[in-house]
């Protein structure tokens, strides 16, 4: 069996992890011919100064041989999308490729090639406003870490490209292979596509003192336990009023808001990773009733928990991405 050709598109100013992370996932899985392409063959300087050799340029690689196209992002993407030859090569490769993917701001190159009209995509949260403004024809959703719309896959920034690559490997070779790759690379397997870019670990500050740290640890250890201000204050060894002030000052949000966010993330994972009923998930993670969970999801995401599960999870694709027929074929 011939190895599937995966072409990674890079440019001066690309984000190195957008290339090296997914490249290692495919290489570790086996069965892939990984090729690095730039506007011209030769050295390419990443945004951090790391020098990478592109084995091919657009003039010497036939786009028709591409099985999977992966376009990196990075600070240089705005300049790269002005390169007509590079954009034309991407469009030509996409016309015959089995699937097309972008990491981070690489989505701008896909948009420049006319591949995203009417599609739902994601990118790094810092580029959301720009992508929405410049491409109103695209449905931008920067909450998930990766999104599949037909045969076009897009991911959030940097390390999310490895989650995307694992999902692609699982799509090709099955869960056991993806699991083996994740273990080899010491990755968290199956971080679902529906997991938010804005997870607690990213959006919140870290506690600065032991009492607040004790309260935070209790919340994460058991999200569904009683975490009203009185119980958290007892954990912290402070009065409720004092903890309220300290917690808000150190983490930037009051305790109740923090607790809700942790519980919502736990419920998101449960919805995308298993078959437990919504009612059971609600009780397990401290929402008391399914209706409370439903109201919280509507307020945060605009959808019901059951709709969230249907959108981000499929038994055929347990990596958590939405799977549906390709209603927007890539232009020939």
CATH fold label of the largest domain: Rossmann fold
What's the tally of helices?
A: 15
Largest sheet, if any? Answer: 7 strands, mixed
The helical percent reads 40-55%
Strand content: 5-15%
Alpha-carbon distance between the termini? Answer: 27 Å
Specify the CATH class of the largest domain. Alpha Beta
Mean of all residue-level pLDDT scores: 88
Question: What spatial order of strands do you see in the largest sheet?
Answer: 5-2-1-6-7-11-10
The count of DSSP E runs of length 2 or more, i.e. the number of strands, is 11
Which geometry do the CA atoms define? elongated
* H/E element order: EHEEEEEHHEHEHEEEHHHHHHHHHH
- The CATH homologous superfamily name of the largest domain equals Class I glutamine amidotransferase (GATase) domain
Instruction: Assign the structural class, choosing from mainly alpha, mainly beta, alpha/beta, alpha+beta, or little secondary structure.
Output: alpha/beta
Rg, rounded, reads 22 Å
